[in-house]
Sequence to fold (667 residues):
Amino acid sequence: MNTADELKQGLAYHESGQLERAKSIYRRLLKAAPKYGEANHLLGMIAYQEGDYETAMHLVKKAIKIDPLKPHIHNNKGEIYRALKKYKSAATSYRKAIQLNPDFVDAHNNLGNILKELGDLEHAVIHYRKALELKSDCASAHNNLGVLQAEKGNLEEAVISYQNAISLEPEFYQAHHNLGILYRRLNQINAARICFERAMALIPNIEDYYQLANIAVEQGSLETAVRYLEIVLKLQPDHIGALCELGRIQTQCNAYDDAFDTFSRALEISPHHSQVHENIAKAHKQLGNFEKSIAHYRLAIHGSPESPQCYRNISSMTHYTELNDDIQAMRALLEKNETTDAQRMELYYGLAKAYEDLQRYDQSFECLQRGSRLKRKTIDYSSESTKNYFSKIRESFSEELFSSHRGSGHRDDMPIFIVGMPRSGTSLVEQILASHPHVHGAGELTDLINITNNLHSTDGVRIFPDHVAGLSSETLKKAGELYLSRLRRISNDSRYITDKMPSNFTHIGFIKLILPHAKIIHCNRHPIDNAFSIYKNYFTGTQDFSYDLSEIADYYLEYHLLMQHWNRVLPDSIYSIAYEKLVSDQENQTRKLLEFCHLPWDDACLKFYQTERRVDTASAVQVRQPIYNSSVQLWKHYQAHLQPLMRLKHLPVDRITAGSRALTSMS
Fold:
């Protein structure tokens, strides 16, 4: 066998993964001809594959010294430099390969990768595009271009690049995975789930299981999420992210003992892990264990000193009487150039609360204004769109609609809906009711909104609020049954279960169609107090109207019009309770509330702050304290700054005055 044939045999072994046989042939060739450049090069590439980069570099350099004009050897020298993280040297090698062969597709692709690592995104794009110009069906170049476009924020272009890569190479694992990550960024959750499932079918991977678990949480499929997380932890028991997420889900399911066990497992692996301590702190805050919560937030800060969200949470649970170390630390973080806008936002809200405690109201408002402006910049919100949406609801849910559906829906009276504007007393009312032995407080549930969003008309068009009139009695009853079944998963033995999603005030008409005997409690509060309380609170959920005083006023007026509409088309169907009356006349108002809910008196309702249950809203601290009225007319301390809210001043405080015996006008 001649030299060329022997080299060909060695390459065949090499490409099939039979590295020892390939090495044997390459060494035999070099023994016969020590200056055989290609044999040195290929033996060096086996060393590279085996992770022996020092030997690989020695042999490849030797090959280049023998054959300096072979572009593929320079390209592979670049690959070894990249493995050694010597990116500038790698770029030099790739450029040399391109100089020798300007049409070298792999070298352009590889140089694009290394320039991306070096932060030279502009030139990286040029080389990716050159690779695709030379070879339009180069799947890896399409994928790499997608990664770069995603980093630059060109998300739609990145989607196309990943899709091109997949169409060329349907079993391209990394492209499926990358597209899944991108769809999550675009909030296209179902599309992301499909991508991760396809990626996992190609190469079962811990990261994809973890991503699918997170998606399941976002979609409310907690059982599915737990199943994926258990797979992750079986494959990698020390996966801190999976332990954190599992513990968080357990708190969501009120399995706090299990959650604390899970967090303890995480701390055994990483005792100073900031996210673990932060999750423990959140759990204790939900349970009202504020001292423990603050202690764990401080441990989280110790592990990650620049933790603005921890300072903000500590501020929410602290009554400041002086300019202490926490305030100084928040100020210092604001002064740092590297502090991001998202971090500054958290710090401003934390400082606003502290300055309010210190009665430095002008400073407090300045911080609120700066924090809310940063938040508003991140939100796509339109008051006009909200106005149109509320108008559609009023038009769709007419008196004629309710007359035509009299007798429809499921007749169970178990649900109690607590609605109103955020910060209107909904958490307080739920905590009072949840203190009663016959009531389970379920918190803010998304089930009703999810059910309405998934209902379609016969032609497949989403129906809320359009086309509601076209729903059959059978469809309405099934929707009620579905909602009830979801409630029963939360508590199977409680006589009543509360759903305290404030924004369900937009769905009052739908509630009465699917559950005509459900009780609806509307919490209201002095308009300016309510509006300003919204403005000065940091919301973790979607309250997109909350970060501009004029937009809050616009939203409040639309809410007011809608509540007037419900009172007109559903007379005596809604029980109204004013926050100011509740805090000034607790016992009488509580008795009326229980009477409306057909509940016997129970003294525990007056000591609601002693009730142990999960509270995960902006009012988590307040509902752990006895009734107080310091929030009543708090807005007056800020009056000079609240001109956009003054148009709410004329609205009556107690707008809806249904009688306490009212249940429904549709029975």
